[in-house]
Amino acid sequence: MSEAAASPRKRLFIRSWGCQMNVYDSGRMADVLAPLGYGPAEGPDAADMVILNTCHIREKASEKLFSELGRLRALKREKEAAGGRMVLAVAGCVAQAEGAEITARAPWVDIVLGPQTYHRLPEMVARASRAAGAVIDTDFPAEAKFDRLPEASAAPQGVTAFLTVQEGCDKFCSFCVVPYTRGAEYSRPAAPVLAEARRLVAQGAREITLLGQNVNAYHGDAPGGGRTWGLGRLLRALAEIPGLERLRYTTSHPRDVDDELVAAHRDLPQLMPFLHLPVQSGSDRVLAAMNRGHTAADFLSVAERLRAARPDLALSSDFIVGHPGERAADFDATLALVREVGFALAYSFKYSPRPGTPAASAPNQVPEAEKDARLQALQALLRDQQEAFNRSLVGRTIPVLVTGTGRHHGQVAGRSPWLNPVHLSASDALIGEVVPVAVLAAHTNSLSGALAAGTATEPPSQRREEPAPA
Ligand code: SF4
Predict the structure, then answer these.
(1) Taking the model in full, what pTM does it have?
(2) Which residue of 19, 57, 171, 175 sits with most ligand 1 atoms within 8 Å of its CB, as the best mutation to test the pocket?
(3) Compositional bias of type Basic and acidic residues: which residue ranges (predicted)?
(4) Mean pLDDT across the chain, nearest whole number?
(5) Is residue 176 in contact with ligand 1, taking CB distance under 6 Å?
């Protein structure tokens, strides 16, 4: 830890919305500001600088941002009236997409920065203290931001940690802002990724989740040159780090699941048998309109290959219902795909237009009432599948990574290989250990269990536990 971080002279509060990538980015922004004397603040009231790290994916992202900025304006004024100062920055995808609107509607914002320019934050803070008006930096600079961020992380992440290996996307799905806000696909070279993973393990991480908007498009420079590494090769190298018990990666695209990645699932016990693989729709018509570049059959074939390689693999996915042009028969095809695959977990959303994306201006928008009805039907089916998967674990002994203390005295919390939160009575001396746990009960979103003697066993494959169609 740097001296500045050990005894901070100024306080920084970062609010993150959205995905794990944003949480990771917030950590890196704290890292670059630590040498300027910024340490963590409990909340905005105690902060000399507040960063709102925004996400454009979810609905009403900009309304949420502007209402938060309204609250912070009052706080900033109070501080200034008392002779103090608060630097206010907006970062992330909304900043990238709507930078000009932010400065027009909220002129009390000092800094607007896109996800590719976090390494320039110290310079922007210095400029903001001199400038009248906001400093805006939403470029896609030629130099990669990862190369400019400091190596050492000021704050250890704990037993489970995130590590960004890839950013941006070139796929231009019709509904998605990522190619516009995060820019073209970029992969970090493998050597700094491995170095960061070793550092995280030395700081206590036992599980690392590799992050990227399209993480399995990863193609980073190999250490020492030569051919670039794909994600499968990178996972193999990470699996050799002593003390690193578990690996995961998210978010993946079905088109980028190659043989090397499938083989990694077959060969690496550290690679957890749980994969988030968005399919979005089960209709080939809609998948084509979404510009996904795969069919429903392609997705089924990828799922089969992965399950053949790792029979206990559970799948999670994302669905959008009511994409422009989606008919009842297309939605039925989505339900059919869900029944055929059987998901342990899934996220489903009504299509909502994102400004600047092709689908937003498509003429054949689906009426809201129809979207609502379809979403309810899909979520009922997915909930049944999730509950059935969780029930399939009851009565089994599974390996649980203990991640922290539980809500009640004498309880600890952990994580199953399939990402279920698990609660059990045990000593907090076990934090950081993988222990066998007999699963006693399944709830919709978690499991409860008890420490078991002996070794954990694998659950049956997910498909054998598939519930009856809704
Ligand atoms: S692949 Fe994912 S990140 Fe890329 S455009 Fe499509 S939805 Fe967005």
Answers:
(1) 0.78
(2) 171
(3) 461-470
(4) 87
(5) yes
